[in-house]
Amino acid sequence: MALLEAVMDCGFGNWQDVANQMCTKTKEECEKHYMKHFINNPLFASTLLNLKQAEEAKTTDTAIPFHSVDDPPRPTFDSLLSRDMAGYMPARADFIEEFDNYAEWDLRDIDFVEDDSDILHALKMAVVDIYHSRLKERQRRKKIIRDHGLINLRKFQLMERRYPKEVQDLYETMRRFARIVGPVEHDKFIESHALEFELRREIKRLQEYRTAGITNFCSARTYDHLKKTREEERLKRTMLSEVLQYIQDSSACQQWLRRQADIDSGLSPSIPMASNSGRRSAPPLNLTGLPGTEKLNEKEKELCQMVRLVPGAYLEYKSALLNECNKQGGLRLAQARALIKIDVNKTRKIYDFLIREGYITKA
Questions:
Q1: Dihedral (C-alpha) 289, 294, 296, 298: value to the nearest 10 degrees?
Q2: Contact at 8 Å (CB) between 175 and 160?
Q3: Which of 46, 244, 267, 299 is within CB 3.0–4.6 Å of 262 for a Cys-Cys bond?
Q4: Cα(276)–Cα(283) distance, rounded to whole angstroms?
């Protein structure tokens, strides 16, 4: 034991210092004894060989070994890909900001000196133990990230998207358990559920065939073709009924014609952009009990109901437009929109109404 401690203190090969620390042996004796019993000992060699063979036999019949993902890219600092990889530096196998990044700060003022009391020494050791536990947690998290291939996040997300939506939801739910079961077991679990989902969907399709009285796959292909045709016809009727509700609206008719042309050409029907003319009109505003209603005449009440504008706001807008018209000697629509910060279509209706009723004049 004294020889081993001396080699640890002085370093392997520094036999003169080892002999000086031993005090009872020469450097040749120390080297000869160490090489004979700790380096060239056949007992150690056979023991190591047996341990290696036992380890290989242990892993022979186990699961397929998990291979990590490809070497991740090395993006430049603060680039978009670097942020996607959470600042991972592949050359160092570290992150720019580690988990519990400031754990070392608790040790910066600790210094072990000989005159420390037992309580103070125990307290410092407890702080060091806490720091070690935080380092273990950091390493555990990094190991999970590496084992499951989470560093290259984009590639991981692309792998997730190959599953159906139902399996993706399960993947998202079961992700929290991946750190417990390991990467191989977790992937096997997800793959088995994806297979189960495919089998259930196929069974449901076969049951639909059986309910329809189909007994062979030739009839099943005919059934699928007719079903697709019926769905397309139903889609056409639905779009036609929508257009008939706005038959007076030319833009709605043009949108329907474009969608119909897409369907006839084999493309998916394009979704039309929402427009004011294509929306269902909201019901008129009920002015009963609203403040300022008694100050409106019948035409102004009708305008507020159709535009869905409360009387108090209408009176304020009207007063502002009248004052500006008196100052300028006339008022343009652009000036009215600059004064009234509301929907431009409502502003136009108010402006046209005031022009038509003679409250203001057009510049």
A1: 80
A2: no
A3: 267
A4: 15
Contact by Cβ (8 Å): 277, 251: yes
SS3 338: helix
Amino acid letter at 265? S
Q: Which residues of 33-43 are buried (b: 16+ CB within 10 A; e: fewer)?
A: ebeeeeeeeee
Give alpha helix (H) positions in 148-212: 153-160, 165-174, 178-181, 183-211
Query: Would you give per-residue pLDDT tens digits along the chain (363 residues)?
Result: 889 888 888 888 888 998 998 888 898 999 889 888 887 777 665 555 566 666 666 554 444 444 555 555 666 766 776 666 777 777 677 777 788 888 888 888 888 888 888 898 899 899 999 999 999 998 888 888 878 777 766 777 777 777 878 888 887 788 778 878 888 888 888 888 888 888 998 999 899 988 989 888 888 889 888 988 888 888 777 665 655 555 555 665 666 666 666 666 655 554 444 444 445 566 777 877 788 888 888 888 888 888 888 888 888 888 888 888 888 878 888 888 888 878 888 888 888 888 888 888 887
Count of C-beta atoms within a 10 Å radius of residue 146: 16
Helices (H) then strands (E): counts for the chain: 16, 2
For residue 126, count CB atoms less than 10 angstroms from its CB and return exposed for 0-12, middle for 13-18, buried for 19 or more: exposed
Question: How would you write 1-46 as a 3-class SS string?
Answer: CHHHHHHHHHCCCCHHHHHHHHCCCCHHHHHHHHHHHHHCCHHHHH
Q: How many other β-carbons are positioned within 10 Å of the β-carbon of residue 129?
A: 10
pTM: 0.37
CA distance 257 to 270: 11
d(CA 209, CA 34): 81
Q: DSSP H helical segments within 265-310, as ranges?
A: 298-307
Quote the tokens at residue 311.
């009387």
